[in-house]
């Protein structure tokens, strides 16, 4: 199932909010029965002042919350799972490849 998911995925269609690399990893993990924490919720105020000007980023309340995946949250969850003995922390190996 994971192989089929990775092969059929459209890699040219992505965005900040979804269908990004973190979503790909978490979806593949979910196919293996592993649910990973990876999203952040940001509440945006209806009005804010910047340089003396009042800006209104949204008028419809459904846009007040921006939820998106982040590699930092995913990385913390993966490290915690490794500490619990579920998987391995491969950070040193990964960083070694980048040299």
What does this structure look like?
This protein is an alpha+beta fold. It contains four helices and four strands. The strands form two sheets. It has a two-stranded antiparallel ribbon with strand order 1-4.
Name the descriptors.
elongated, two-stranded antiparallel ribbon, 99 residues
Largest sheet: 2 strands, antiparallel
Whole-number average pLDDT?
A: 89
What is the topology, as strand order, of the major beta sheet?
1-4
Terminal CA distance reads 33 Å
Write the layout of secondary structure elements.
Elements: H1 2-8, H2 21-31, E1 39-43, E2 48-50, E3 53-55, E4 65-69, H3 71-83, H4 91-97
Antiparallel strand pairs: 1-4, 2-3
Compact description:
With 99 residues, this protein is α+β, with helices and mostly antiparallel strands.
